[in-house]
Structures are given as C-alpha cells and as structure tokens.
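Dataset card, provenance and construction

Sequences and ligand SMILES were collected as paired inputs. For each pair, a complete structure of the chain with the small molecule in place was predicted and serialized as structure tokens. The example below shows a pair involving zinc ion. Curators did not alter the output after generation; any descriptive sentences attached to a record were derived from the structure itself.
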Amino acid sequence: MTIEVPYSWPVALHPDVQLIPRSENVVDAVRDDHVARVLSVNSGLPAVLHRLMREQPLSSFLEANRAEGFLDAASADVLAQLGRGGALRRLAQPGFGAGELRDFEREIGALSRHETAEISRFQLFARVRSAHVVVIGAGLNGANVIQHLAASGVGNITVVDPASIERGQSGRHPWFGRGDVGRSKAERIVEHIAALTPYTRARAVVSSVDSEAGLEALLSDHPRIDALVYTCDRNLDFGVWAARQARARSFALLRVNRIVVGPLYRPEHGDACPGCIYPRLERGIRDLTTVNALGVTARDSTASLWSPELSAFGALAAQELIHCLAGVGRLDTVGQQVGPNPRGAHDVIKPFPRDVACPACGDSC
Ligand SMILES: [Zn+2]
C-alpha cells in the first residue's frame, strides 16, 4: 500500500509506528502487521513522521478531512485502510483554513523540511503569517520584494514611499500603467497586493524619511515590526538610522539595492549591520575598483533595469526574510552581500563583516 502525503495535509503517522527508511524520500511505516509506504519530495520525512500527534478516532479524522475538502473517494479508501492499522493520526489543528493550506502548500512544504518533534510546519508558517514587514522604497526593487513577501504568505506589509508614478516608469514597472501617472507608488502597490492575495494586509504610507528622528516617528506608529527592508539606497546614512532602530526595537533589517542583497542584520544575533561599512570607509580601505565595476555593470545593462533580474533580487530578499521570520533555513546574506540572478543561483559579491567601531551596532553604542 502506497500513499503520497501532500505537505499541507494536517496528518502524520502514529508515534508508535516503526519507520523503516527506504531512501531519502521513501519510508515504510509499520504497525502490527500493517505496512504503509510513504513517499514525499521532502527529504526530512522521518522527522515529520516522528512528530507527536493528538489521538483522534479514524472516523472523525476522515470526516474532518472530507469536510475541509482534502479527501476524494480513492484517497479516503487508502486512508481508511491505513487507519485500520492505526498508522494515521490527525495533527493538532494548525489554525489555518483548508483554502489557506491549499494556497500555501508549496510554502508549507518548504518549511516542512525544518519540522521537528517540537515544532510543526504549521507553527513555522504561522510565524510568517502573523509577521509584519515594513518595506521602505516602492520602486521596482521594493515592488519585487513586496510581491514575493505577499506570495510567501507574510500577513502584514507596510509600504513606505513618498513618490508618485512618473511618465516613463509605466514602461519599466510591471504594476504601473499609463493611467497611474501622478498616483502614489505606495498606494498603487497596495492595490495590487489586494488584487493578488486575500492573505496579506498591506498598508501604504506616503511619506519620506529624511532623518533618523523621522524614521523613528514613522516606525513608532507600528507597535509590532518583525522586519524592515529598505531599497532607498541613495542616502548611505539611512542604513545607520535603520540599524539603530532595528537594535532598539529588536527587528530584522535587510538592505536591497540593484547590485546586491544584504547584509541581513539580526540584532539579537550580533550580525554585521549596514552601518558596519562606515568605519571601513573612514579608514580608507574602500574597495573602489570593485564598487565602481559593479556600478558600471548595473548601469550599462538595460536588462538589469527590467523585471526578470530584479525579480530574482526580490525573490532572494523575500526568501531570506521568510527564513529569518520562521527562524529556520539557510541565510545567505548574514555577514555578506550576494548578487542573485534569474537562474535562481547567486554569487557572494563580498563579505560584509561586523566592525566594532560601527556607529550603529559597535561596542561604543
Ligand atoms: Zn554595524
């Protein structure tokens, strides 16, 4: 008997089941004289299967799954046979509706690789769903980050940008049409998010941030912030202001521009913050050759102004934030800056070490 377990099914095998791994993705589950072969693309399958579950009679398990639209007749037959062997149990209620579980099956699947006996994929995803991310800068870069955050299930996004849509931007920005010229970028993007997904509450703040006090005042309107992304990169001081706020209020901070994604600063982990570049600049060890070469490459290529490449930046930035918010998974932008590309790979462009003389996170702060 073989059953493929979709990621979003709130089910798992009984803890007393004996597991016999057949490969990275196939496990035979044996209880008494019943054997269930479980297949998954998830290589962390044994950990998933070992989770402790709330006991529930098979009939209510089947009924609940049927009521939530998870079961067709053929699957129900297989489950009934498995259940008679006492192999299947329903996971504790994850708190998500059936539609939400279906719509985010891939995202939940990605998190299921990090599931342990202590925390389920649903609890990990709940951290993402309840998170509030502030995105400062709603140009093409910011819009790509926002789109990927919303697609990943982030529950609350605040979009900050003082600018209006100008002629010429409608050709380069997939979300801005000619009829939008003169409208607020932040408000237009919030409308798009509302059209894309019912799961993200996005709010627009049409405001500029020209000082550290201004940033503090803007953020003080939000009692809870889990992460801040900034794509407004013209003012280098902004990184110092944002890092000080991140440290004071304990949220993650990620810098994204047209050349690199990173560094990701998690104050509680003592990561390098964007301000750590300052002492190095002052000591005159700036690698001008590299910086200029990267800038020229970015400006010379019109492809890099268009969405496919920047979409890769948005996807990487969102993935870093999702891993950070969920507290699991690999982080590629801690202590370094990376350049993503549309193939989904990315190169480390340069290490970004912490500096104890940093004006934002340094020892004298
Ligand atoms: Zn720093």
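Derived descriptions for this record:
Residues 2-118 form one domain.
The chain is about 40% helix and 20% strand.
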